[in-house]
Design a protein that fits this description.
Elements lengths: L15 H10 L3 E7 L2 E7 L2 E5 L1 H9 L3 E7 L2 E6 L1
Antiparallel strand pairs: 1-2, 1-5, 2-3, 4-5
Length: 80
Amino acid sequence: MGFVRPKERVIMQKSPFEAVLELLAAGAYIEQVSEAPLAFNIRIGSDAARLPGGVVQQLLAHRRIRQSCRVSGHMRFVAT
């Protein structure tokens, strides 16, 4: 009997920027939940997760998102 070596898996981690872009392409939106300090959530369906402000600023700077509307006092951003 020989030695069976498991197949090697290469797992590439995505940057938060790339991960958020994929979620936005799937229909997610970003919501600003507070102004001082700035806090953002990314929402898709009924799920939400905290999003670092630096990622949002990077998306805005690269014109990947735009302001959409204000809902219950929270600004929403959608993919461009």
